[in-house]
Fold:
Amino acid sequence: MSDFAAVTKVEWLAQTVNAIPRICSPNEHDSMVSALSHLPHLLSYSLSQTASIAVPDSWKDIAAGSFRDCARVALSDPNLWAKILMDNRKSLIANTQDTIEWLRRAESALESEDDNALHQMISEANANRKKFR
Structure:
């Protein structure tokens, strides 16, 4: 548990910069930060690597907005992000496994040409995305 006075100070500091203080356990924090920051970085690096292999250099100039939006954070400093990802690896591994499972289900729907299953998956993800600002 945290010292009440220290928590109160941090809450005050957050409020002075118009942030919304949230109280949670260190494990809850690590899991949420992994899902909201660390996993997106890892996925962005992965997307950039996959596209680099799939697209010849002479075609890389036609990357559309969706690629630029998804791959933007892959421009972040690899030295910094390798350390951040390693520091929170336990939570990141759990979130990565959930992502891989989702992608496997999507891959299965694509392989079996099950457009209803794929539509349901992406519709659910679309609705879930709308819950975030």
In short: The mean pLDDT is 96. Residues 26-54 form the longest helix (29 residues).
